[in-house]
Amino acid sequence: MLGEILDFSLAAILIWIAWRTVTTPDLFNAVVLFIAFGLLMTLAWVRLHAADIALAETAIGTGLTGALMLDAVAHITGKRGRRRAGRNPS
Amino acid sequence: MHVTVPTGTLGGGRKSGTVMIGGGLIYAMAGVVLFALGFYGFIVHAHLVRRLIAFNIMGSGVFLVLVGLPQRVAGTPPDRVSEALVLTGIVVAVSATAFGLALVRRLYDLTGETRLPNDPRPEP
Amino acid sequence: MSAVYGPIRQIAAALAWILGIGLSAAIVALSRPDFGLAELVEAHLEESGVRHPVTAVLLNYRGYDTLLEIAVLLLAVLGILAFRPPGPASIPDAAPDSSPVLAALSRLIVPLIVLAAGYLLWAGAHRPGGAFQAGAVLAGGGVLLRLTGTIPSFESPNAWLRVSLVVGLGVFLAVAALPLFEGSRLLEYRTAEAAMVILVVESALTVSIAAILATAFIGAAPPRIRCMSPSRPAHSAEGERAGQS
Amino acid sequence: MTGISSAAPWIPLLILLPLMAGALSFLFGPRGHRSLLAATMTGIWFSLIRLILDFENAGLQHYPIGGWGAPLGIDLRADGLSLAMLGMTATVGSFISLYALGYFAGDENRGIRFWPLWWLLWGALNAVFLSADLFNLYVTLELLSLSAVGLVVLAGDRDSLAAGLRYLLAALAGSLAYLMGVALLYGAYGTLSLERMAGLFRPEPANTLAASLITVGLMLKTALFPLHFWLPPAHGSALAPVSALLSGLVIKASFYMLLRLWFEVFPSALTEVFTQGIGSLGAIAVFAGAWLAFHQEKLKMLIAWSTVTQVGYLFLTFPLAAASSTSAPAALSGGVYLAVSHAVAKAAVFLAAGAMLKVTDEDRIDRLEGVGRHLPISLFAFAMAGVSLMGLPPSGGFIAKWLLLNAALSSGQWWWAAVLVLGGLASAAYIFRVLRRCFLPPREYAAFHPVPLVMPLAALSLAGIALALGLAAAYPLRLLQTGAPLLLEASAPSTVAP
């Protein structure tokens, strides 16, 4: 029973974070939320008895993809992007 | 361990008492919702990084369905094949994401744009 | 979400709702298989050469998928290299980050990372772990070393890097093809040798995966570590970049 | 399950050789890439011919990788359809490789990046055509898409980067739709093997939804209207040999999968609404594509839009093959034959255009004057391949359309016959628009650069093959029909369709 409650709340939080990730107007926020989403996915994999995927998700899915995205965002919001950032809230 | 139920019955728990909705079904459902959400983000966003994020959310949704569905009956042993498939899928997704992000950076260096040319969607 | 163009947003939302509801209904209504692969996976575990079923699927039963998958990973790097501007041979190498904290940290952490990767690789034979996780962890170490300037940036991959990028695909292809010369089938390992073969393949894969993931990170562009080390003047790297493009 | 379980190495070699060549060409760069090309091409052709000979003796070939066999392992399989597609890939691929030797002769920087991508692409194509596993097909499709995108961005300018990104996003979305369908089917039947799935599949609503997702994903990758938006920029802005590969071969892989899946695994779910609907999309693509092709200013964009048109024809196979058991064999042979002859003809056209553009340095159609005088071989190749694209005799395109026309008339669907005939006229319009320009005398100030002779010759050879496919159609068509379960089971949908 406890397990099911955990599963339901985890699923709900995953969906909520994904929704925030998709709809937030701010690019940087979206990346951070996406990384949080990946960490929660790790929990979901553990609940699904898939320890291998949990490991891979942490290392590759969240760690590397997140790092790549942060790096890309840092790149494209620098330089000319900085002016743009000043012009509107993103 | 393995229980067969007539096709098309939902959960079936009330019927025979031997089959329960497993945690797998919850996650498969969540996977479907994530897929739809990611799809929405993929369409509405013009910013290429946002679209790649949406693609990754869609992908996570598919992976949850892939692993969740075979475990939807409680007590089914985890399906190692689907687990291996998802591992393959994660690696494919990260390859595509890395390639896509590198392309976005280069496009930005050349044009100063982070969206595709002739995109009808205004910049958010 | 007010920023998003109205009609597109509404159409997308409608499609997403249809997709979500349709798929949810499908998941509930889907028939259940009277047959699962789980029993088969267990039944042949003895012959597979490893005790961990996921590794058995990845490197033996469905090893062919993994063979193609490492080619997909390599493609990410080939694709990134494909559009790199030819440019002069010497991109001014972004100065190594002099942050002493980061340097000390990396001296401490990198050996641990290598150790962790080695453990994950070895563990893959009988419990969760394996080449992909190990490679990813190792790549994380590579990225860290790049950030501290220990690994130089590159214009085009030198021979060593090229070898480590393709060694995974190359070794896997060779191992896959070897049985063909003996009249056996592609990827058909003899049971006695399977454990050894899988370990060799996994080690080569780990090296390549680490190299590929780190190259994808480093090779995408000259590194920008500005956001992580605010002490460094932010504009020098920008200037190089702008001058280049 | 019919056919034999083969232990001969020809099937795996067709996949291993190009992958190995890809790894080696990346490792060694420009050194020895000619000998690598010669060795790999010889190996591929040798394996393919041996495989065809085996097939003629023994019929359908199964190859259980690792000796496990489906459903635990992955099976490869070669039937008439696979062999036709493999032959198409080898033929077009060989001539494009020779052409690329000339094309990249003065541009080593791009050349050393081209070869590994192209070898992996070739390996991916062969892997698609030989795979008999739903998830393995996903991996091969990703291999194909990523190498194709890598080749598009090889040009390196902003147009090709944007086109490559657009292509990448479309391809990724298509792959995920496909994978979601596969995930549902795996959840329902617990197997990934095409043949086991074929025996188990029932057209229940949930399964039909899975099949639809797979179909939409593959339609996106094949660029069927209205999911064609990514194709013209990608094919139009890539380098000439790359455009030829993309238009000729890459989109055929997902079309092949659609044929394979619908007529072998999901035939019970074929409904008249679906087949007529997908045929209508094809018809729209035929006319809208031709209209847009006619109004392009750039030569390569014109050819790229012509590909949208030709993809439209391919999808007429569905309503024609599903209508009745008598029309099915002709329709399927016609559809596959059209895919093959379009691959050859379109590659020839792109290669010829590439030579013309290299000679004139101009991508605009109204600057092509004088090409007839300075580049007669390329222009001749362009015209010959154009005959096949228009579907005039004697050409592979004519035979294919003739078969489709027969299927349309024998199943009483005159409207598809009308699309076939009128579409041919529309194609003629844009092809003649280019030819007319080329025959005009050159402008005085126009400069013409020489190109390596291998380039026009490769284009001419492919154009010759496009015509030869019309003169010697008997053998490939027989190959297509021997031992092909695809065609034998094609009569099934007619009993199910309302």
Please provide a written account of the structure:
- The complex is a heterotetramer of chains A (90), B (124), C (245) and D (498).
- With 90 residues, chain A is mainly α.
- Chain A has helices spanning 2-23, 27-47, 51-76, 80-87.
- Chain A has one domain (2-87).
- Chain A is built from four helices and no strands.
- Chain A is flat and about 50 Å long.
- Residues 80-90 of chain A have low confidence and may be disordered.
- Chain B has four helices and no strands.
- In chain B, helix 2 (23-44) runs antiparallel to helix 3 (48-68) and helix 3 (48-68) packs antiparallel against helix 4 (80-111).
- The longest helix of chain B has 32 residues, at 80-111.
- Mean pLDDT of chain B is 82; it is low at 1-19.
- The relative contact order of chain D is 0.11.
- Helices cover 75% and strands 2% of the residues of chain D.
- Chain D has a three-stranded mixed sheet with strand order 1-2-3.
- Chain D has two domains: 1-269, no CATH class; 270-498, no CATH class.
- The A-B interface holds A 3-4, 7-8, 11, 14-15, 18-19, 21-23, 25, 27, 30-31, 34, 37-38, 41, 44-45, 47-50, 52-53, 56-57, 60-61, 64-65, 68-69, 71-73, 75-76, 80-81, 90 and B 23-24, 26-27, 29-30, 33-34, 37-38, 40-41, 45, 47, 49-50, 52-54, 56-57, 60, 63-64, 67-68, 71, 78, 83, 86-87, 90-91, 93-94, 97-98, 101, 104-105, 108, 112, 114, 124.
Topology, pairings included?
The complex is a heterotetramer of chains A (90), B (124), C (245) and D (498).
Chain A (H helix, E strand, L loop, with lengths): L1 H22 L3 H21 L3 H26 L3 H8 L3
Helix pairs in contact in A: 1-2, 2-3
Chain B lengths: L12 H4 L6 H22 L3 H21 L11 H32 L13
Chain D lengths: L3 E2 L4 H19 L4 H26 L2 E4 L10 E4 L1 H24 L4 H23 L3 H19 L5 H32 L4 H7 L4 H18 L8 H7 L2 H26 L6 H23 L4 H16 L2 H7 L4 H33 L10 H4 L1 H15 L5 H15 L3 H26 L14 H18 L2 H8 L3 H4 L3 H5 L2
Parallel strand pairs in D: 1-2
Antiparallel strand pairs in D: 2-3
Helix pairs in contact in D: 1-2, 1-4, 2-3, 3-4, 3-10, 3-14, 3-19, 3-20, 4-5, 4-10, 5-6, 5-10, 6-8, 6-9, 8-10, 9-10, 9-12, 10-12, 10-14, 11-12, 11-13, 11-18, 12-14, 12-18, 13-14, 14-16, 14-17, 14-19, 16-18, 16-19, 17-18, 17-19
